[in-house]
Design the sequence.
């Protein structure tokens, strides 16, 4: 995707560096167009190095390429962060006195602006009217957040964090259907199965053995796969159904236990090009299900029942074994690994060993722990392949950006 990142002259310009990185990590081409004032805060060298592209502020350089027309016309997204009161005013009134405002006039793609300024400027009737005018024209204006501003003052006017801006841009793109189902993408015509959430193993009608997986990473994988053109089945374990703009195109197969998950995956596997085992699967289940609620004994002792467990099948390893037995190379099989470092090794050591043990084509490892990965909107992922010692590190970033990186790696494997 071609992104134009406009930066106007506010102290929050430094946050645009992090936003630029998020787009670059997702594989997007980003051209940075700072205003002259923006260069007082972050210099041209930084923008050029981070974007890997030359940086221009006015329409006079590279005139033979007519950048003020071409950049806007060719962009899939224009995002301005931070947008100052001055930039909002110039954009609202159609001025074209530098490269960024010229781009805004020629762009026909979604335009997202993220204002940042002092509270008085944000609340001034002139700014309020300019924002209303831009919104009426279809520009997505992200509300500034409240908090500490440049000086000692606090209030609305802060630029939201890069991750929030990035998520807002992706949401706008999905909403307007820039990457709608059926559009041609790297997964067009591919059937993918994603498992997500966490299995629950019932003990009695009331209780179960479960885990803390929220299903957010799996939902993001399913949604991004639809946007990239795939036909998507989501085997969902005890999690909310996806709710993003492409949710309607995802076929959901809800299951509860590891054995149900195994049955659903095996039946979907025969026609799948890719299986992504993102679900957190219980390795053990209670050996006996108690048909009635397990009660405390009232015999005056502190006795408690002992729960006998039996092993669940390793679904992922089973898929790999079945594929090998059939002498096939399809489907591409992706495993996830929830790891913690310990005295035996780092997260990466454990992930490398798990990749060898499971035999899948790609392993996505996350570090888990209190406040890490489970239930969060962000994570850091390590992508490991069996035939390559290199590890791709993604993040810390949104689970959506992790999903994009996973599908990029899968598209590479499919292209082999
Ligand atoms: N997995 C599976 N079947 C299981 C357990 C895990 O298919 N019974 C899959 C998960 O969906 C994930 C990968 O195996 O893709 C790794 O899961 P994880 O829980 O990290 O590893 P385990 O195999 O359970 O190993 P351990 O808990 O010993 O680290």
Sequence:
């Amino acid at each position: 995707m071609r992104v134009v990142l406009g930066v106007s002259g506010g102290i929050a310009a430094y946050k645009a560096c992090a936003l630029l990185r998020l787009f670059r990590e997702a594989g997007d081409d980003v051209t940075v167009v700072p205003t002259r004032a923006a260069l007082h805060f972050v210099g041209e060298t930084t923008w050029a190095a981070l974007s890997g592209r030359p940086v221009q502020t006015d329409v006079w350089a590279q005139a033979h390429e007519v950048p003020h027309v071409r950049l806007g016309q060719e962009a899939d997204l224009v995002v301005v962060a931070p947008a100052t009161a001055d930039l909002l005013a110039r954009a609202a009134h159609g001025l074209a006195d530098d490269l960024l405002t010229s781009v805004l006039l020629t762009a026909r793609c979604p335009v997202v602006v993220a204002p940042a300024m002092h509270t008085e400027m944000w609340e001034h009737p002139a700014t309020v009217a300019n924002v209303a005018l831009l919104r009426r024209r279809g520009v997505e204006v992200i509300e500034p957040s409240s908090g500490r501003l440049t000086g000692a003052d606090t209030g609305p006017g802060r630029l939201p964090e890069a991750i929030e801006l990035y998520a807002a841009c992706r949401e706008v793109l999905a909403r307007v259907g820039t990457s709608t189902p059926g559009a041609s993408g790297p997964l067009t015509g591919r059937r993918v199965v994603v498992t997500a959430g966490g299995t629950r193993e019932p003990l009695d009608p009331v209780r179960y053995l479960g885990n803390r997986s929220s299903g957010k990473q799996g939902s993001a994988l399913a949604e991004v796969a639809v946007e990239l053109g795939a036909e998507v089945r989501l085997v969902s374990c005890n999690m909310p159904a996806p709710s993003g703009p492409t949710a309607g195109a995802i076929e959901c197969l809800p299951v509860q236990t590891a054995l149900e998950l195994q049955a659903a995956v095996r039946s979907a596997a025969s026609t799948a090009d890719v299986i992504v085992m993102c679900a957190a699967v219980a390795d053990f289940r209670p050996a006996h299900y108690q048909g009635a609620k397990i009660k405390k004994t009232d015999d005056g002792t502190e006795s408690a029942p002992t729960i006998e467990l039996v092993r669940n099948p390793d679904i992922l390893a089973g898929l790999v074994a079945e594929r090998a037995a059939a002498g096939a190379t399809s489907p591409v099989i992706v495993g996830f690994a929830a790891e913690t470092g310990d005295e035996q090794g780092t997260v990466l050591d454990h992930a490398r060993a798990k990749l060898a043990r499971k035999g899948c084509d790609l392993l996505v490892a996350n570090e888990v722990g209190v406040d890490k990965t489970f239930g969060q909107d962000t994570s850091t992922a390590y992508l490991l392949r069996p035939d390559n010692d290199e590890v791709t590190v993604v993040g810390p970033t949104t689970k959506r950006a992790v999903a994009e990186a996973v599908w990029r790696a899968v598209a590479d494997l499919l292209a082999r």
Notes: Residues 258, 277, 279-281, 283, 312, 314-316, 335-338 surround cytidine-5'-triphosphate (CB under 6 Å). The two ends are 23 Å apart (CA to CA). The domain at 2-176 is CATH 3.40.50.1950 (Rossmann fold). The longest helix spans residues 399-414.
